[in-house]
Amino acid sequence: MIEVLAINGWLLLLLFCLVMWLLVFVNNEFVVTEEIFDAYLEAQMQEKYDDDYNALASEFEDDLEEEEVNDSMWYDSLLDLGVITLQSIFQFGIISAFIFVGLTLANLPQAALYHSVFKVAIVSEYIFFIPKTVKYIWFIIVNSTYNYQDIKNFNPFSLYGLFDSNTVPAWAVYPLKFVNIFEILYVFALAIGISVITEERLSKVFRLVIVSYMSLMLLWIVVRIYIGSIF
Amino acid sequence: MITWKRIEISLLLMLICGAISAQQVVKGKVTNHENRPLPFASVFVINSSVGTITNESGEFEIALNFPEEDSLMISYIGYRSSFISVKVQSKFITVFLQEDLIQLDELLVSPNKLLKNPKVIIEKAVSKLDSSKNRRDFILKGYYKQTFEQAEEYKQLIEAAVSIYNSPTASARFNIDQIRRSHDFRQAYDLQNLSKYNQEQVSSEEMLEFDRQRGSLAFSYWYLNNFKSPVVENQAPLFGNLNDEFVKQHNFKLDTISIIEDDFVYVIKILPSHASKSYFIYDGNDIIPVGKIFIKADDFTILKIEYQYILNPKRKGSRDFRILQSVFGSGVIFKITALYKEFEGYQYLSYLNTVHYSTSKIKNSGQEKRVKNVLERTLLVNKILVKADQVTQEYKKKPWNANLYDRKYTYDEKFWSNYTILTETLTQEKLRKDLEKKAPLSEQFKKGD
Description:
The structure holds 2 protein chains of 2 kinds. Chain A has 11 helices and no strands. Chain A is mostly helical. In chain A, helix 2 packs across helix 5. Chain B is of the alpha+beta class. A 10-stranded antiparallel β-sheet of chain B has the order 10-9-8-17-16-15-14-13-12-11, with helices on both faces. Chain B has a 4-stranded antiparallel β-sheet with strand order 3-2-5-6, with no helix packed on it. Chain B has a 3-stranded mixed β-sheet with strand order 4-1-7. The longest helix of chain B has 17 residues. The radius of gyration of chain B is 24 Å and the shape is globular.
């Protein structure tokens, strides 16, 4: 961990974003394919679309300007990378801020500067590449006949994986998915990293990280449940 | 000297008068010579504002006061109008309209630069709107219907007799004259309030506020948003969205030329342009406005507008198209239809219909599914009061209460049995009967009082 934290923070961030970008590419090209997504949209509707639209479409189609239908433009990938980068900066920034406030309130040494905490957040996040990689390997190699719902329900290392997805109320899905092995490993990684940069005992730091991080996550889960209930 | 003979004669006279002056609902169907139904055909009492239009199956029903109102004119663009006398005992009449042929040599006399530039026709029609409005007080009386359909089942049905007071010097005023409505079984819009709206006793203010929060579903707001009456002289637009901005925001193309009552009618397609208002804040070119407008060639009066927002068929293969289609449950997002009628030299609204499509996620046996929602609202103007004394009298006696959920209304069966409404299609009848199985509408109404 010490050697990793010695690496330049921007380099760590860039590497993280590139790996995430690669995983997004794999997901879009090989896992959630057009066929899988279309079948999901099709299955969502209990009723088929009415004929009114078809009549209107055929009446007006010839009068409309031609449109180039191309779902993937050359700059889409760059946009993805840009979005991933901004999202990561925001995410790490918020997590670091909560932990940094916790450390400050606990009067821990000034060695724990904000940028150091930020680096710890980046490094710890690498843990979440493991479940994504496992998921993609599963659907690309192990179980290649699947549908979109299977992908959404694939959470074998979480509390959600212990329940029948049909019985779980909508509001409980995200909290159950949140409680998983990798989240626990992530908290440990955060604690170890903070312990290294502050040169404090792990047990003391662990309590601080739990309180800081879990406060943020609790807030986040409530927001997710609320948004999920509306849409 | 009072004699039984005098009493008998009086009674006989009363009977004769009663028989002569009787109100009766007459039903009918309008078709062409191939027996194909003609939807939105106008059915009006000659020299009167009393009238209705046919439904999608060409059917209509109209309350007539015999003997004064016994002559009907049935008209439809592209067909010769029919004039019929209705007998007191008539219950159902079938009207066949003959297709009218355009004499092209007559048409060529018109300035053909108009034919090449349909935008100019629209501009003339829009500017004509101002001169064709009645600048005195008048009252529109009509039938209002609101249905919320989800997964091919009615969740809400409201029928009301309404009055709309129009004045060039004051805001429009609205009154719910009579009402008939179901329990509110809607669940989709606000799942958080699900339990609340399954309870029987919900106050009218809560219901109105509930509807207001979701796009102004109150009758008066709906009317003003879709068909604004002028409040003051310099306020535009007159007919809903039709103003100079509308002309700038669309492209137009002459589709065909039709005919009605020996007058040519321009049928112009409404097409999107780069200036078209987006239906969403962001939708790119995925959702576009299209429509048709029917304009009389001799004086540029507007007869009918059909306007809708649809998914752009040119983007059919794209992922965004498929996603939007699943979000709305239909390729048609929103549509509005308005018909206009001329009466005593002025142009009035005779029919207004809007349909909004959407979807909701519901859980069915543990599986999440999307179901289609259709919110449809219709106003059929069945009478227009223009005489000053009539308008004043009517204005004074009404409370001008536009609250659809005001529980002080009582169901008046006699009123509804002699009132002009829009005839239900077979599908609508089935949906209503299924809703009534939960509780008969008349019973629901009594419970709400």
